[in-house]
Q: What sequence folds into this?
């Protein structure tokens, strides 16, 4: 597709957003005006998953872990190495909604992060056929979750709106996590296991009748097995999650991923969120060779946040 063709497809969501979610429409318009780009170009970035009909093959490993009074949410985000320079930290202060602190790609208003109500989200790409222009695009579904005051509210918002294409959104708050497997046809929820965990990679773990999945990354099953192996003997806590995200078993197509001759996908950032404390530790780059460490803290105002390393 040419970029003009991409923008034409993106415009199919325009009237839906204006009618059902005018706040999202307005924010995309503002990003376009501020960046000097066309509305259709910024909209295209925010609906890129839908434009590609699930052809993206980023390979991410995510988990939620509730133990005692602590609720943790974490992810390695794997994508094209060249995209790293487009990653930004986006802080959003809102009236009547929680404030947001997230890692996203320039121009995209919903991604991976947490809000001042203690709601955090992670994303796993899933390649499956199907697209519904009457439902909420994947990245805007992430934003709607981050606009929520609780995990229950976020799940209900997705169930009400539906999601236009296939993905897995892992939602957690201080009370624990819920996995939300989405296709253009349905939404299936994944509850916490007895150990308080939810683990997900890049394939459906629940049945979605009538949905044709095309698993792009063969290591998606190996990664979920590897996480399960590590967790069996791990003590609950941030240290154990850090070691898990650092894991290079099966290198280079490991949880901590490196690009290969056959694939330019690598781990671009690692994040661990403590939802009780409403903060997150981010490592930019592969976690074992991080280029920069910083915190997400949506409770802080912009001046306070600027003083936190």
A:
């Amino acid at each position: 597709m040419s970029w003009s063709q991409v923008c034409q497809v993106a415009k199919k969501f325009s009237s839906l957003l204006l009618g059902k979610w005018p706040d999202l429409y307005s924010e995309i318009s503002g990003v376009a005006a501020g960046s000097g780009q066309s509305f259709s170009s910024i909209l295209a970035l925010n609906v890129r998953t839908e434009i590609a009909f699930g052809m993206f093959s980023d390979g991410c490993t995510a988990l939620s872990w509730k133990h005692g009074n602590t609720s943790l949410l974490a992810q390695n985000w794997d994508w094209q190495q060249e995209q790293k320079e487009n990653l930004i930290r986006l802080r959003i202060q809102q009236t009547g909604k929680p404030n947001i602190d997230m890692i996203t790609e320039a121009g995209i208003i919903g991604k991976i992060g947490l809000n001042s109500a203690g709601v955090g989200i992670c994303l796993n790409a899933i390649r499956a056929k199907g697209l519904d222009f009457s439902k909420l695009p994947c990245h805007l579904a992430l934003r709607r979750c981050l606009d929520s005051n609780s995990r229950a509210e976020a799940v209900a918002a997705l169930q009400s709106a539906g999601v236009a294409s296939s993905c897995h959104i892992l939602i957690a708050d201080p009370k624990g996590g819920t996995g939300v497997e989405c296709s253009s046809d349905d939404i299936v929820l994944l509850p916490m296991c007895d150990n308080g965990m939810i683990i997900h990679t890049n394939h459906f773990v629940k049945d979605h009748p009538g949905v044709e999945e095309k698993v792009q990354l063969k290591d998606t099953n190996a990664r979920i097995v590897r996480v399960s192996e590590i967790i069996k003997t791990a003590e609950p806590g941030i240290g154990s999650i850090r070691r898990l995200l650092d894991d290079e078993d099966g290198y280079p197509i490991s949880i901590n991923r490196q690009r290969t001759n056959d694939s330019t996908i690598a781990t671009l950032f690692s994040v661990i969120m403590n939802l009780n404390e409403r903060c997150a530790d981010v490592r930019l780059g592969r976690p074992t060779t991080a280029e920069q460490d910083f915190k997400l803290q949506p409770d802080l105002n912009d001046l306070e946040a600027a003083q936190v390393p």
